[in-house]
Amino acid sequence: MRLLQLDLLIICLIAVNLCHGQQAPFPTISAISPEQIKDIGESVTLECDIANVGKFTVGWQKTNRERSQQVNTISLGPTLAVAEERFRVDVDKENNTMKYKLTISDIINTDAGLYECQIQVNSTSKVTNTVELQVRHPPILQDNLMSTTVTKAEGEDVKLSCVAEGYPRPSITWKREYNAILPIGGHTFSGNELSLSSLAKEDRGPYYCVADNGVGKPDSRTLNLEVEFAPVISVPRPKVAQALEYDIELECIVQAFPSPAISWFKNGQQIHNGGSYSISQTGQPDDVTTSVVKISSVESSHYGDYNCKASNKVGHAESRLNLYESVIPVSY
Fold it and tell me: Superkingdom of this entry's organism (predicted)?
């Protein structure tokens, strides 16, 4: 009885071995190219070595690292799936290994990404391995992330942002026009985002975002920061003297953004163009407006206090001037 049991066990083991011997060896990826770093215009060959490939299909797929949902099939077996002459697939046999080689010529920026060598084992599983292709190229700043003009009210906070593509990864540097001191201190700031708190009118103006990675020329953008602030009035001559029957000009200088509405008053009554009065306004750089009231042939009723008033959406201001009589004509 014991001998019979041993015989049955041996028969079972032989049967199992025979069954296993009938199964095809499972395919494996024995080697794949390491990460590749290339310049624009160069060529690269990505190699994927497959052991026991049998009748299984081997293919290459490309995935963009930033857009992982975007997958492009490059090849299936020895056949290309893309109609670009820059791509070529070669299949070579070396001993028991099949070498699937993907060659890309005249490399461009968009060739960068993750290239996956895959063996479709069945409808639900596959064997894969990945090699990354990096393409060195100059920095390119993205234009669509922020408007070129940013408007904030005085006292508010703002964040100026710049994002650049490129390889190696670009560094971002911020600076102001004429290399002026930044509101946070220093002539430059490194980082994608420049944060400014409690804005003052002196903070307005162009800010330059510069991206550099040592490849080609740096890329730069200008972001114009506009700071809305209430009018500020200065009067060059608060007291003005003139003799009767001579002309005189009263002047006030207003700095404001947005541009202010400016009006003149005499003894509480608004002055308009006409008669002895001629009012003009001249815009100047740095959000400055100069307003002038010209009085022709001064009469005694013209002497007294004048008020220059300015207002915009942020606030208002006013300043007083005094015109008094002099014995002799005065030239300004």
Answer: Eukaryota
